[in-house]
Amino acid sequence: MPRGTTKRRPITVAALLDAAFELFAEQGYGATSIADIAARAGLTKGAFYSNFDSKDALFLALFDQQWRERVTRLRQTLPMGAALLRAVEDGTLLHSADPEADRRWLLISTEFSLHAIRNPEVARLLVEHEKRGRAALAELIEQALRSIDREPAISLAELTRIVVAVTEGAQIQALTEQAAHGTTEPRAGNAVLRTLLDHLTTPTR
Known about the structure:
Blueprint: H1 9-27, H2 34-41, H3 45-49, H4 55-77, H5 82-89, H6 99-117, H7 120-147, E1 150-152, H8 156-181, H9 188-200, E2 201-203
Antiparallel strand pairs: 1-2
Helix pairs in contact: 1-2, 1-4, 1-6, 4-7, 5-7, 6-7, 7-8, 8-9
């Protein structure tokens, strides 16, 4: 990881993250080299290795950035309670303000998940980062439920895990349909999420 801290380091890291996002979306995670990322960022490979040990480490930093941005957006734009829960039900909970950026991130994160499945050590790291991301989201879901006098009927962690899994699955289906037909069918995941919230939460005792 980083060898010391300089005033330019945040600028360098931001440039590498932006370049990686663009290239991973354009040509795929596996097809993108560290040299490609450094060149797109206008930096040297030495600058890359001064900040990241590997391409996997860079992806995980990008993963954390994406989760932070989405959780921050939820805190800022959705009042606690019904509005946040509607975002869960309609499948937009993990969306950003840019549908194209969401599409590109789904391509990137899905490919990396397959890479992790083939590499147990990478999988262990990804699982830890996913847990941290879901934990931040779980706090918001808990507050939203409390504001309407409901609570999880199962553990909050498991409820959040299910919400994320169905949301991401529905997004994959919708984008596949869009690529095939040019239009998106109503998401089956929406009805599933509404049903899940009905059955996996209960009135506060």
